[in-house]
């Protein structure tokens, strides 16, 4: 009887320790992908849902593609046949696919060739219907990217010719 009580007590201790370990692992995983506030052209982009927050994954800041692109004034569309997202602005467009680390830019100017394939530091991801791209995706659109602890800023760069 005493051995049986010891066995039950040991089983309880192991069960509680296992639950605590699993809980700590979940907290650790959440802490390893910190969320970022997103500012575009000086305005904070409000996330409508928690899964629309910018976040960091393995050292790369990922931003919600549609929210960031539309805040910059770009047109975003889904290309069903290619299973890709197209981002369109006045001088160029870009196309990305989920799981790809490449963005295909197509220039619209005759004087300057802006057509290029750009390697992204992380794969494009779709989480609960929201497409995420590395924030550096927006650099070839001539945007300034600033990443600081807990915040990411994308600002359109402009030039004036006199």
UniProtKB/TrEMBL annotation:
<dbReference type="InterPro" id="IPR036582">
    <property type="entry name" value="Mao_N_sf"/>
</dbReference>
<feature type="signal peptide">
    <location>
        <begin position="1"/>
        <end position="24"/>
    </location>
</feature>
<protein>
    <recommendedName>
        <fullName>Copper amine oxidase-like N-terminal domain-containing protein</fullName>
    </recommendedName>
</protein>
<keyword id="KW-0732">Signal</keyword>
<dbReference type="InterPro" id="IPR012854">
    <property type="entry name" value="Cu_amine_oxidase-like_N"/>
</dbReference>
<dbReference type="Pfam" id="PF07833">
    <property type="entry name" value="Cu_amine_oxidN1"/>
</dbReference>
<feature type="domain" description="Copper amine oxidase-like N-terminal">
    <location>
        <begin position="40"/>
        <end position="146"/>
    </location>
</feature>
């Amino acid at each position: 009887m005493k051995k049986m009580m010891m066995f039950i007590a040991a089983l309880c201790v192991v069960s509680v320790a296992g639950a605590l370990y699993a809980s700590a692992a979940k907290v650790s995983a959440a802490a390893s992908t910190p969320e970022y506030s997103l500012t575009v052209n000086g305005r904070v982009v409000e996330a409508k849902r928690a899964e629309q927050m910018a976040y960091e994954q393995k050292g790369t800041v990922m931003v919600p593609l549609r929210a960031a692109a539309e805040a910059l004034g770009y047109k975003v569309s889904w290309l069903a046949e290619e299973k890709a997202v197209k981002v369109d602005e006045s001088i160029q467009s870009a196309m990305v696919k989920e799981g790809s680390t490449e963005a295909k830019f197509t220039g619209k100017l005759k004087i300057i060739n802006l057509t290029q394939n750009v390697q992204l530091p992380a794969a494009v991801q779709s989480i609960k219907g929201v497409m995420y791209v590395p924030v550096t995706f927006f650099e070839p659109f001539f945007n300034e990217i600033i990443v600081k602890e807990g915040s990411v800023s994308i600002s359109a760069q402009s030039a004036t010719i006199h």
